[in-house]
User: Which sequence fits this backbone?
């Protein structure tokens, strides 16, 4: 069956006194629950410049993790995950109507990753990212919902220009500002030895991909220590932003096929 290890770390950085990043997870309590629901990991980055970024990110993580734990057994992850992200968006949007928050603005990014059998489903809004490291090669699974990335796709700027522009953090999509949001969702087939990294822009903006890969690929090192090393290195390089990372290593998978939308175990 699917067997994983994970670690996580977060740091407010050198400048900010509060941490607007939030993170959460759901770890199944039994083999049955691992097959029926799976694992869930989530990272959110409260948007800087709004009044209550930490409330927005914490609200999003709370809704996603709690509702995942309460989902019907066997629910298909590609449908479940974006639905939970939309529920989180509604919760953040509604927060602004509560008396203590009235007149305040709040928004957050979120990246979620659910794992079951031999597949990871990733759903995200904003520029918090998911990476896949396989056999020493790094691949970005998510696509940033930022103005500069949109301009890059249209051929208006080059990828090299993104790092130099002051508007690289301007989001075109986030949780909270609008009543409805369309998360982007994709699936990744997993192999033993794969590592997934969920992180906020405080990490991926500062750390070159080759260094991230080298840190994550250290053998026989505790994943909490690896996550802490990623965060500490990003803060050392710059430290102007909150920085968060979750690291998930795949030890084994359970290969399944699909029939009429339902999984079945493949013969050994």
Assistant:
């Amino acid at each position: 069956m699917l067997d994983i290890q994970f670690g996580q770390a977060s740091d407010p950085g050198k400048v900010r006194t509060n941490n607007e990043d939030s993170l959460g997870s759901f770890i199944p309590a039994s083999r049955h629950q691992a097959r029926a629901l799976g694992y869930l990991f989530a990272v959110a980055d409260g948007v800087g410049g709004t009044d209550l970024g930490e409330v927005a990110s914490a609200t999003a993580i709370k809704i996603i993790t709690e509702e995942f734990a309460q989902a019907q057994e066997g629910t298909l992850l590609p449908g479940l995950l974006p639905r939970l992200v939309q529920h989180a968006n509604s919760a953040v949007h509604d927060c602004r109507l509560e008396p203590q928050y009235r007149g305040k603005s709040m928004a957050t990014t979120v990246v979620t990753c659910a794992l079951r059998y031999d597949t990871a489903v990733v759903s995200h809004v904003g520029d918090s990212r998911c990476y896949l490291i396989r056999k020493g090669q790094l691949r970005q699974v998510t696509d940033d919902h930022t103005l500069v990335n949109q301009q890059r796709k249209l051929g208006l700027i080059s990828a090299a220009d993104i790092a130099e522009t002051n508007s690289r953090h301007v989001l075109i999509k986030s949780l909270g500002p609008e009543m409805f949001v369309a998360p982007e969702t994709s699936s990744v087939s997993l192999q033993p030895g794969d590592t997934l990294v969920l992180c906020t822009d405080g990490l991926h903006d500062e750390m070159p991909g080759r260094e991230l890969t080298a840190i994550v690929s250290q053998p026989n090192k505790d994943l909490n220590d690896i996550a802490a090393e990623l965060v500490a290195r990003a803060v050392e390089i710059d430290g102007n932003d909150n920085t968060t990372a979750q690291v998930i290593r795949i030890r084994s998978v359970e290969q399944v096929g699909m029939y009429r939308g339902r999984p079945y175990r493949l013969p050994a």
Notes: The two ends are 12 Å apart (CA to CA). Residues 3-259 form a domain with the Phosphatase 2c; domain 1 fold (CATH 3.60.40.10). Residues 148 and 154 are 10 Å apart (CA to CA). The chain has one domain: 3-259.
